Structure formats: structure tokens, C-alpha cells
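C-alpha cells for chain A. Residues wanted.
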């Protein structure tokens, strides 16, 4: 049992594909903290994921939605308010996909049709979602909207490819829409920049295992896992962070501000010195 810090709150969780998903962990933690939930995922997840299993476990409605379609998002938001009996207190956007990455197309040879899809699904969907929430006046006052991102928005990680551009756009949208949502509706919008995490999507990036170990060594606290990210999301959905908005919050064990780790320095020492 949690501390019930989300008791009485209602929220939508995007992207809980399987138990390795950060969104899956977030949904479980929010439920444990007393929240009422609606789960959503892309229609294809009905065939390749276990979202229905989680929905049964948490007694949460599952509403499939294609994040590239306004009508799907409008149905999701209106149905969620109807099923939960009121406005939303929090939303987690955990959505990302790149066919260029999946097909291992080099960054210097990107397929631009695929890139359009990447930006649409992984970043523009965040704006599209918030526009629907805004138009439907779906967010309760002092509500919280969180998008998951990665430090490749600020630094170059070659194998992350065009997803870096998508995350950069996602973070900019959070700031820009966060201003309007805060000014006019007292709703906060933030992104959480998470450590490399062994999710289905993350593991699809080339060289993931090597980089996971590198980041784990570089970070003073080690990599933050999905469960600890879920705890952080719960805090962002709670009333304890009601004055935090338009921020990109690093949740990475200190990786983002570490220049070099002593353990890695050992690899570059002159053995004859």
C-alpha cells in the first residue's frame, strides 16, 4: 500500500505496453497511491502488448487511441471524463516510435517519410493531446501533465538518431504549452528526462546494452530504473509539486551533470606513467 497521495485524483496513462514499460510501472504506482485511471495505447498494442492484462489488474478502463488522430484523442478524453466522473488531474504521455531506428537506417540517410511519422507520433502528439485537453476543458485546476523524454535532446547520442529531434520538439512543446496552460488554467506541464531504461522501445536502439552500462558507470547513483521513474511521476502528479511547471527534469542518477566518472578514467590512464 502507498501513502494515498493521489487519492481522489483521476488520470490517463499512455503507453503501458508490458511490465517493462515505464508507463506500466507508473500506472501501478498511481493505482497504489489511490488514483483512478484510464489506460490508453495504440490500437496495434491490442495484438503485441499486454495492456488489457494491466487494465483488468487495476480495474481501469482501456481506450485505444491513435495519437496521430484528433478524433481518437477527443474520444479518449471525453470517454475518460465520463467513465471517471469528472475532470482529469494528471496525464502521462509516454509515446515514441521511429521506423528509421527500427530499420537501422543511418542518421545521414534518413527516410523523411519515416521521419515525419517519428515527429508526428513522438512529439506532435503531445501538442495534439494538450490541444484536446484544452478545448474540452478536461484538466482540473492545478492538474499535471508529464511527457517522458531523454537527454539526447541536449547531447549527441549517435544511435538515438532522429528520436533526438523528436525529444527536443517534445520538450519545447512542454514549455510553450505549459505557459498557456499555467497562465489560463493553472495546469502544469513538465518533461522527465529518464536514464536509459530496459524497455521494449529503449532496447531497440542500437548498442543499447553497452550504453546502458556506460551510463550506469557514469552516474553517481547509477541508472534510475522504471520503478523509480514511476515514483517520480507520482510526485509530479501530486499536490507536492504544484508550483513546478515548464521544466525538463533530469531523472538519471546524476548522469546529466557528471563530466567523467573515476572508474572510466582508469581506462585512459597511461600504464607507463
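Reply:
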Amino acid at each position: 500500500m502507498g501513502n494515498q497521495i493521489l487519492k481522489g485524483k483521476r488520470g490517463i496513462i499512455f503507453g503501458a505496453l508490458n511490465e517493462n514499460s515505464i508507463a506500466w510501472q507508473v500506472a501501478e504506482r498511481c493505482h497504489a497511491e489511490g488514483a483512478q485511471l484510464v489506460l490508453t495505447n495504440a490500437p496495434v498494442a491490442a495484438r503485441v502488448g499486454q495492456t488489457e492484462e494491466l487494465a483488468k489488474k487495476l480495474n481501469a478502463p482501456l481506450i485505444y487511441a491513435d495519437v496521430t488522430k484528433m478524433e481518437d484523442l477527443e474520444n479518449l478524453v471525453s470517454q475518460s471524463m465520463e467513465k471517471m466522473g469528472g475532470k482529469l488531474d494528471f496525464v502521462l504521455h509516454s509515446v515514441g516510435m521511429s521506423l528509421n531506428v527500427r530499420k537501422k537506417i543511418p542518421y545521414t540517410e534518413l527516410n523523411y517519410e519515416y521521419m515525419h511519422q517519428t515527429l508526428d507520433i513522438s512529439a506532435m502528439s503531445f501538442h495534439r493531446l494538450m490541444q484536446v485537453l484544452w478545448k474540452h476543458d478536461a484538466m482540473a485546476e492545478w492538474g499535471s501533465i508529464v511527457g517522458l523524454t531523454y537527454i539526447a535532446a541536449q547531447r549527441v547520442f549517435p544511435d538515438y538518431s532522429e528520436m533526438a529531434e523528436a525529444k527536443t520538439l517534445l520538450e519545447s512543446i512542454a514549455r510553450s504549452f505549459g505557459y498557456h496552460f499555467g497562465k489560463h488554467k493553472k495546469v502544469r506541464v513538465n518533461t522527465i528526462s529518464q536514464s536509459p531504461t530496459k524497455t521494449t522501445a529503449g532496447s531497440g536502439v542500437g548498442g543499447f546494452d553497452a550504453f546502458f552500462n556506460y551510463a550506469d558507470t557514469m552516474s553517481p547513483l547509477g541508472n534510475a530504473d522504471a520503478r523509480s521513474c514511476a515514483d517520480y511521476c507520482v510526485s509530479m502528479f501530486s499536490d507536492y509539486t504544484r508550483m513546478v511547471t515548464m521544466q525538463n527534469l533530469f531523472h538519471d542518477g546524476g548522469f546529466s551533470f557528471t563530466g567523467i566518472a573515476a572508474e572510466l578514467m582508469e581506462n585512459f590512464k597511461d600504464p607507463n606513467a
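The longest strand covers residues 139-149. The domain at 10-268 is CATH 3.40.50.720 (Rossmann fold).
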